[in-house]
Amino acid sequence: MPIVISLDEAAEKKKLFSFMNSLRRPNVAAAEKEALRLAPYFKTMAKLSCDDFGRRGGRTEKELRPIKSSTLASLFNTIAKVTNNTVLSEMLLLPDVFGGYGHSTAQDRLREKREQEVKNSNSFFGGSDSYNGRTYTFGFLQVFERNKKGDEKSSTSIPIFAFDAELLKVIAPHRPQKMFRDFQTVMTYGNHDMLHHFTNTYLNNSIAQTFKDGAGAGYFDWQEKGCVVDWSRRNFSHVDEDPKSLESWLVLNHARIRKAMEGSADDKAMRRSVDGFFDELKRIGEKYHKEMKRTFIAQTQRNPGVLSQEWAFDSARQAAHVMTDYFGTMLLYAMMRFMPLDHPLIDHAIDRLEGLDSDPSLLAEEAWGLTSSIRAYKKDGVGGAVYGAVHRIYENYKRSGVLLIDQDADEYKSIKKHQMISMLPWMAALLAPVPPISGGSKREWNENGDLREAKNRVGRLNASMLRASAKTVNFQL
Question: How confident is the model at residue 371 (pLDDT cuts 50, 70, 90)?
């Protein structure tokens, strides 16, 4: 999967479009390649699925043979063949040229020769956000295979993560490719889009194209009892942030599969990539810091008596901090998508980020609103300025025996974890522990009732999802 640093440079742009054009062929080929890449994941998912079928009311006579990795791979490929769509889960890294939800500028930037070249058209679906004023975008890029008339025959959807374009420019001269390859490994590891592929027939039309003709016609609207659309509508709410939504279930199911994979070769590779990322970020940060020193000192020399050397050193240190803090926090964002906030690897990553920051004390100044809410929370023990879902996350960890906030409200790790919660509160809440109910407290039950139920039904819904996916495409488990 390519890593694209700039869409303004011809070589980088060519790399992206060459990759996209390689996908303008029958989507089944992409599915088969993806199924091979996912073999270790499918092996663990198969083991859990056998247990899910056994514990949750047993299996039908047709389902008596064990589910194997090859079973899931065959189902994955059959879904691709029947629906004419493949959803990949390996992340494509790009500069953030999107500027918002489905922005037209992004559509134009991701076309090779504008709209008139129908054979090269594609679609983008996603949403942008920001961290300390720097953007990042999560979304899907969909590439179409077309016949000679230009009609859509099949499509392949690629998940993308886009970094702030300006920050990419400043580190481009420092050979960041290895750092981003390690980032890609971690982000891909936490991405659950292979599960989206299993529920392909319920995906938003902007992510998985609804074909009007051909073998897949009608599957996206099929509501026969027991099929994926019926399964989805019977079991889930329609708001992603709800613990009982389809998206929440996908997060929980993926997290338990990755948890079961701890100690595996894939897990060890992901952990090496975390350290590899920070090794490279440290190297690039030091080079960038020196570069900024030279730049700002040159400015003082051009403006003697106006700009001081102290100003130059402070400005360089702050510029280096902004860069390293942004990219380091993006990796933490990738990790919190499948790990609870008290996971030792997240603590390790935060320690690595603090250790390479040119001035970690700047974090408290930038996040003064967060530090004040942390102090308020510690002071009254109830929440203070920490309201709603964020407060519940802290309380759930605390009632489960984990102090997410350090004794020192200004401590780097406390601030960074609070920032992480603020970036993705519903997912942080979802992966937090559900504390035991003490003394039958009705308040405690009501606060976490939906979350408790969402976690308890993960295995049952995994079994019923596989049944529904198999039925939708006439596949025998």
Answer: low
> From its phi and psi, is residue 133 left (phi > 0), alpha (psi between -120 and 50) or beta?
left
Domain locations in the chain as residue ranges = 1-58+67-166, 217-261+434-477, 265-386+401-430
* Cα separation, 181 vs 186, whole angstroms: 9
- Which token pair is 369? 């609103």
Long-range contacts of 23-27 (CB under 8 A, 24+ apart): 23/143, 23/145, 23/156, 23/158, 24/119, 24/120, 24/143, 24/144, 24/145, 24/146, 25/145, 26/145, 26/153, 26/154, 27/80, 27/84, 27/85, 27/86, 27/145, 27/154, 27/155, 27/156
CB 110 within 8 Å of CB 124: yes
Q: Which helix (H) or strand (E) holds 129?
A: strand 122-131
Count helices and strands in the chain by DSSP H and E runs: 20, 5
User: Token pair for residue 293?
Assistant: 């020193």
Q: Report the candidate in 114, 169, 163, 117 with the shortest Cα–Cα distance to residue 139.
A: 163
Tokens representing 95? 């500069």
Alpha carbon 404 to chain centroid distance? 22
48, 258 contact by CB (below 8 A): no
Q: Would you say the pTM of this structure is higher than 0.85? A: yes
Sign for the CA dihedral angle at 63, 237, 239, 428 comes to negative
Model pLDDT for residues 162-210, shown as the tens digit of each residue: 999 999 999 999 999 999 999 999 999 999 999 999 988 776 555 655 5
Dist CA 88 CA 157 (whole Å): 6
Distance CA 109, CA 9 (A): 12
Q: What radius of gyration do the chain's Cα atoms show?
A: 24
Q: How far apart are CA 360 and CA 345, in angstroms?
A: 20
Cβ-proximal residues to 255 (8 Å cutoff; 6+ apart), any chain: 338, 339, 431
Q: Are 176 and 182 in contact (CB under 8 A)?
A: no
Q: Give the angle 165-171-177 at the CA atoms, nearest 5°.
A: 95
Q: Residues near 191 by Cβ (< 8 Å), separated by ≥ 6?
A: 89, 90, 91, 159, 337
